[in-house]
Write a structure and sequence with these properties.
Chains A, B: This is Homeobox domain-like. Chains A, B: One of its GO terms (molecular function) is DNA-binding transcription factor activity. Chains A, B: Pfam families: TetR_C_39, TetR_N. 2 copies of one chain form a homodimer. Chain A starts with 9 loop residues before the first helix and ends in an 11-residue tail after the last helix. The longest helix of chain A is centred in the middle third of the chain and has 30 residues. In chain A, helix 1 crosses helix 4 and helix 4 packs parallel to helix 7. The radius of gyration of chain A is 20 Å and the shape is elongated. By secondary structure, chain A is mainly α. Chain A has 10 helices and no strands. Chain A folds into 2 domains: 54 residues, Homeodomain-like (Arc Repressor Mutant, subunit A, Orthogonal Bundle); 152 residues, Tetracycline Repressor, domain 2 (Orthogonal Bundle), CATH 1.10.357.10. The interface between A and B is large, with 38 and 38 residues. Chain A binds a DNA duplex (30 and 30 nucleotides) through helix 3.
Chain lengths: 217, 217
DNA sequence: CCATACCGACCGACGGTCGGTCGGTGGCGG
DNA sequence: CCGCCACCGACCGACCGTCGGTCGGTATGG
């Protein structure tokens, strides 16, 4: 009658838990997801979960770390491709959003505990992606398509504001502003990185990156 | 022996609760502060707190709203002063940090629930201050000291990244980066708003705004 | 046979609720 | 002008359900 205890290698079980938790966290919010919920979804007992993770918070941290690592790998690949600098620049940005749709999706509802999730993700993303993207910009500066004295700093500023302003889990109820903000951020990037005005916007449009057609406002 | 029940007008009691909660939240973190703690600090019973607030979360929201309103008032005053545009621009930024030291201070410790607090503050600040600051920039554009086609958008981007990058409750353990980031943000502001390079930096230095001396990096 | 993975009853703390109490105030009859 | 009383906003604290986390013990498989 007992459903037969199944044992798995720790790494795999860890991933199972992370998968379930990620789905639930993004679906109904971190606070609103109980450990019990995760247990039921994975099909394990409480003790098992706490055998693999020290706390609920560590699970959240685990999701963010895992996702960030995946994105960083993809970003690195894109950054190292033999494409034009502008293509690679936009490609890295795309890698951030494309690979993490799970993080950006759903949970339009109530707040507590969710902004936390989003902001931690953003911070980790900025930390991980800034050096990669700055490298691309530096190459752009070297070849003349970009022009700035502080690539790393400007990239950091751009990534931070991008992460915040395009996340509707943070600026609640302003999802309709996202196209405007996307255009504004591209415009800001052009200015800050000193590339030909409109160069990023048109390239973004060609790459079919959302809301990247016109001027801001 | 019973300490005699003291009754106050609701508004005042509300403020008392907000005061205590703000002190505790910033001291030991939102999550780590129990409702019980607040009760003890204010010297009231649980029912009383829940007579004035619907939930712990509403208290947090109340603190943020109150602080934002105060800052907005001060920012408005500064923006309307008969000073040079650049002075007023920096003055508004200063108003944000000066008037909200309670929000930025302390609680270097453990994470959960605190980033939430900070990020909500930042979002509200951006919402409240953007129009005020954009107005100043527009005046600057009109008189020629600034030059940008999208004042509102650029201000929004600047405020967002400022809020994030200068808050050590968000980028944990990077407090030492703040001077560098301050300089970078000023530099970015100069570029985005199209004012004379170094104009903001020197003015900031004259106004004794922290870490605003040299170029970025 | 021993480490590793797993189980689930149990615990204490916490956020939130609820029935009820207290003190001041305004109206009204005397 | 006084005293009574109905009313009401503010206040109280015992109580409850839920939740994150613990622990002693058990199955599995190398």
């Amino acid at each position: 009658m007992t459903p037969a205890r199944i044992s798995k290698p720790a790494a795999q079980r860890r991933d199972d838990i992370l998968d379930a938790a990620q789905r639930l966290f993004t679906t109904k919010g971190v606070q609103a997801t109980s450990v019990e919920d995760i247990l039921q979804d994975v099909g394990i007992a409480k003790g098992t979960l706490y055998y693999h993770f020290r706390s609920k918070d560590e699970i959240l941290q685990g999701i963010i770390t895992r996702t960030t690592e995946r994105v960083a790998v993809k970003a690195r690949q894109v950054a190292d491709r033999p494409d034009p600098v502008i293509t690679r620049f936009l490609g890295v940005l795309a890698a951030m959003r494309v690979d993490a749709p799970e993080l950006a999706l759903a949970e339009t509802l109530h707040g507590p505990g969710n902004a936390e999730f989003h902001v931690l993700s953003i911070v980790e993303m900025v930390r991980a992606i800034t050096p990669i993207l700055a490298e691309v910009v530096e190459q752009g500066v070297a070849e003349g398509s970009f022009s700035t004295e502080h690539p790393q700093d400007m990239v950091e500023i751009l990534l931070t504001s991008m992460g915040m302003l395009l996340d509707d889990g943070i600026f609640r109820g302003e999802a309709d502003q996202i196209p405007r903000r996307t255009a504004a951020l591209i415009s800001a990037a052009e200015t800050l990185l000193g590339c030909r005005p409109g160069a990023l916007a048109t390239a973004a449009h060609d790459m079919r990156i959302a809301g990247a057609t016109g001027g801001a406002r």
